[in-house]
């Protein structure tokens, strides 16, 4: 059949128009100031222009996938994209309970977000990967605004990881060996290593930073069986040896949660199979009703199963830290918030409770150690009341965060870390996160208060005061300097008028971060020496000490 000439020219015209339109769309998508496409090893990713600074954002990029038939097991790398992935939504969070909203989240949550300054177009930039806090039970990437950091010429990556029963159930079986949330973080860090160059990042300058559970996580990565995935670390109020990390893992957790939801079985596998079909919000609610908590654990090795940590962290060495720069510290009154309410002193048993978390003492041994600690912190007071609030804050802060940080530092020093910069955050301003959240004005900085001087947070709607702005500028400058140069104060300036010396075993230098930058040595030395002696005398009773030896 002979095709009419006009028809043939019509078809050709349509083809030409189609090609031109395709070329136009590609050029438009790549060059539009609002639509930016990056080609990575997993496919093309489309980002967009930030509205509050000179940078581009890529939100909610999936880096791993959870097995729907076993959402409590290990995740796997997300497959390559068939089409351009539009990275414009970071609203997904992993299943969790949040006060006062209750349960929220979904299993398909293993996403990361990337913020890229315009300066990445001219030369590769250092990369800072944020691991969020939240006691391994709550938190997400979208809580922490990064504009104060990205303005300093670094790429910021923030990651979601599974939490609670989905992230930290430890059952000693190949299907749920434990530490799934930490293994999610490993996959995220591998994704960054393999793809960040496409965004203008320097793969040889990957820094991880995190607070509380995020800081604990970083210490666990340094102790873990996996490869080295970062070049430097900032650990804020975090240590694998913090008492809040220790946990008695319930091996029957799936059975118990299923029973709470009305499904009765004695088989772990049947319970897991059932729970995989249940809405994650119901699982979180049932677990919470049982008052179960989930933390990192020591795994059993299984053939064909990638492990994260198979030696208890009390015994584990830290060869990864050799040659690695570390910036680490805590707030001056970490657990202030626990004792501002007089009700905290009704039947005060904090000492006994803390000892039970980290030591295997019998009743007589517990009573003896409790008396030793009482005498040191509270003197001759038989009944500890609200009048001893500050002594209680000192004790619990020291036991839970301060001394564990000291132990972690000592371990890093012994393993030849390249340089360690130690700080105490003591500033009391209007951006102290937890104090402002709870309308508390007394005392010094407490746990998490430093978040307000690193991130843009929804709690703070007013413009920072000049005093707060100075602290914010100093901390974000020092944190990003550390990511760039492995030194928070490579040179003094009007903003950073004091050189921050690194720590050694002999000098134990530290910087007090407050209105003035003050360098000192051996903070609260008498209290730390008390705990040095206490742990030396009781080492054989410490939980995990002989495990897997």
From TrEMBL:
<keyword id="KW-0812">Transmembrane</keyword>
<keyword id="KW-0719">Serine esterase</keyword>
<keyword id="KW-1133">Transmembrane helix</keyword>
<keyword id="KW-1015">Disulfide bond</keyword>
<dbReference type="InterPro" id="IPR019826">
    <property type="entry name" value="Carboxylesterase_B_AS"/>
</dbReference>
<dbReference type="GO" id="GO:0052689">
    <property type="term" value="F:carboxylic ester hydrolase activity"/>
</dbReference>
<keyword id="KW-0325">Glycoprotein</keyword>
<dbReference type="InterPro" id="IPR002018">
    <property type="entry name" value="CarbesteraseB"/>
</dbReference>
<keyword id="KW-0472">Membrane</keyword>
<feature type="domain" description="Carboxylesterase type B">
    <location>
        <begin position="37"/>
        <end position="531"/>
    </location>
</feature>
<dbReference type="Pfam" id="PF00135">
    <property type="entry name" value="COesterase"/>
</dbReference>
<comment type="similarity">
    <text>Belongs to the type-B carboxylesterase/lipase family.</text>
</comment>
<keyword id="KW-0378">Hydrolase</keyword>
<dbReference type="InterPro" id="IPR029058">
    <property type="entry name" value="AB_hydrolase_fold"/>
</dbReference>
<protein>
    <recommendedName>
        <fullName>Carboxylic ester hydrolase</fullName>
        <ecNumber>3.1.1.-</ecNumber>
    </recommendedName>
</protein>
<feature type="transmembrane region" description="Helical">
    <location>
        <begin position="6"/>
        <end position="29"/>
    </location>
</feature>
